[in-house]
Input
Amino acid sequence: MKNFLFGVATAAYQIEGTHKAFDTIWDHHEDLILDHSNCEVACDFYTQYEKDIRYIKNLDVDVYRMSISWARIQPKKDEFSLEGINFYKRVFEILKAKHILVDVTLYHWDMPQWLLDLNVGWDSEEIIGYFLNYAKKMFELFDHDVRAWSTINEPWCVSVVGYLYGSHAPFVKDFNRMLKAQYYTLMAHKAVYDFYKGHYTKPIGIVYNLWKVYPYSIDICDLKAAEYSDLFHNKMYLDPLFKGSYPKKWLNRLKTLGYDISFINKEAVKSLKDSTDYLGVNYYSHHTIAYDENSEFYFKHVKTGYDVTAMDWEIKAEGLVDLLKDIRNEYTQIPIYITENGAAFDDQLVNDTVADTKRTAYILDHANAILRVKDELNIQGYYVWSLLDNFEWAFGYTKRFGIIYVDFKTLKRYPKDSYYAYKNLIKQNKS
Output
C-alpha cells in the first residue's frame, strides 16, 4: 500500500532488561509495582533481540517503532556507555539487513536515576539541557539508521501520571509540579526539534496519547465537564504545539484555583507552534464524561456499556476516527501516524497457542477504521502495541498487551492468534 506504513512498537525499558547495569527512576521501587516486580530481566530483549527481530520480519511490517534507553546509553552524568551504544548498533544493523525501517523514540520514560540524584526532573528547567545533550549524541551516532525520530513518548503520562497521580516514576503527587513537568517536556521537545532541524533532514516529531472525549449527555453541565476533560487530557498539549498558546479557559481555571503558572513564558510557548514534522497518536480508548461538582475541573469518567479491556478501558474504534477528525478540523494537516494501538486481555497459553479473539477483533476493528479514512485524513501509518507482552509499568507483568505471549519464567515466546491476524491484514493490504 503506497505511502502507508504498517508497524509494531515496543519500548526499551519494558522489554530489554537492565541486568543491574544501570539505574533508572523506575528501579528499586518494587513496592510501588502491583506485582512487586522489576525490569532486571523483563523480556530479555537485550540478549534475545535477534530472535525477536525475526518475529518482526515474519510479521511483514514496514516499521519497527522502538526507543533508546537514556539510562543504558548514559548511565552516569559524564559517561556515554560504549556497551549501550554497541547494543543499539547491533540492533540497527540487523533491522537494516532485514529491510525493516526504524522509528526511534528518544525518551520512553526511563530517565537515568543520576538526574534525580541531582534534583533534576521533568519539572525543572535544567532537564532541557541534559535532554538536548543526550539527543545530540543519539543523532550523531544513529541518524543514518533511523527513518523518523520522536522526542518524547506521551508527555501527558510523563507529567500527569508521574507528577500528579504518582503511579509512574518519579511517583510524585503534586499538581504544581505536574504543571511544570507538562511545560518543560514541551520545552525540551522544542530544543531538540530545533537542533535537529538545523543539522539533519529526516522527520522528527512527538508522540501524544490522546482520548476522544464525549459528553455523557447534552445537559449543559455534562457539556462543560467534557470541555474541561478535553482541556486536561488533550488540549493542554495540542494547543501549545499547533497554536503556540495554552487554552485561555485552562489558564483561567488554574489561576482561579490558585495554581502557580508564573514559570510559563508566553513567548517560549508561542515558539512551540508547528515544532513537529508529524504527530504520533497513541490511542487506546475514549472518555465519556459527566459533571462532578466535587472535582476542581468539574469532570468524572463514566462507563456507557461498551466492552472493556483488562485495563478497564472501553472499546470503541470509531472514537479513534472521531479524534482524528477533531485534530484535522482544529489543529493541523501534517502527517499523522497511529504510533500505538492495542489492548490488554487476560490471555491463556494452551498447547503453545493463545486464542486472543478479543485482541484480534480490537486490532482489526481499529486498523480497518484507519484504513477507511487514511487518505481523507492523511494518516500515514498504523503501529500495533505491542510486539511482546512486557513490563507494563505500575502493573508489572500482570497486563499483557503483546501479540506475542511471553512466559516470564522461561522467556519463551509464543505468537498469539492476533499476531497472525495482523500479519494477514498487512498481506491483504499490500497485495
Remarks:
- Residues 175-199 form the longest helix (25 residues).
- The chain has a mean pLDDT of 98.
- The radius of gyration is 21 Å.
